[in-house]
């Protein structure tokens, strides 16, 4: 069984979206959240922060979310943590691609700040309970 979800490394280049999500995840969800505004910052922070989960925006300059996830996978001790993509690009083919990259789920933007923590918990529980990345679909 996977450990309890407590710490989330969130990579989001839009400061307004990052602030809303961080506030919602910390205040409503009770998580400890470290926000990085680009992929390289996430790669530097991941080893010392030791997140339980990666929450990744898909569309970012320099390194997009899938590229960040691929690079995170190479970091010893934390690279195999579960990942969730957060994006407006939620067409079935795109969602399938994110899952093929190893994401346990996708949360669509815009997201509901009052529900996003529960959406993350649901995806975490489904992945941990053996349902795997193929179950559950997009969390609206």
UniProtKB/TrEMBL annotation:
The keyword Cytoplasm does not apply. The keyword Transcription applies. GO terms for biological process: phosphorelay signal transduction system. InterPro entries: Bact_response_regulator, CheY-like_superfamily, Sig_transdc_resp-reg_receiver. Residues 7-124 form the Response regulatory domain. The modification 4-aspartylphosphate is found at residue 57. SUPFAM superfamilies: CheY-like. PROSITE patterns: RESPONSE_REGULATORY. Keywords: Phosphoprotein, Transcription, Transcription regulation. Coiled coil: none annotated. Transmembrane segments: none annotated. PANTHER family: RESPONSE REGULATORY DOMAIN-CONTAINING PROTEIN, STRESS RESPONSE REGULATOR PROTEIN 1. This is Response regulator. It comes from Vineibacter terrae.
């Amino acid at each position: 069984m996977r450990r309890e979800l407590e710490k989330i490394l969130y990579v989001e280049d839009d400061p307004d979206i990052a602030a809303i999500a961080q506030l919602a995840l910390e205040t409503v969800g009770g998580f400890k959240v470290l926000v990085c505004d680009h992929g390289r910052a996430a790669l530097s922070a991941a080893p010392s922060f030791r997140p339980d989960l990666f929450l990744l925006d898909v569309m970012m300059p320099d390194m997009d979310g899938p590229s960040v996830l691929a690079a995170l996978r190479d970091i010893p001790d934390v690279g195999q943590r579960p990942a969730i993509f957060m994006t407006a690009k939620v067409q079935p083919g795109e969602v399938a691609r994110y899952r093929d990259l190893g994401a346990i789920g996708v949360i669509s933007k815009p997201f509901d700040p009052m529900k996003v923590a529960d959406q993350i918990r649901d995806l975490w529980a489904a992945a941990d309970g053996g349902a795997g990345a193929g179950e559950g679909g997009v969390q609206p």
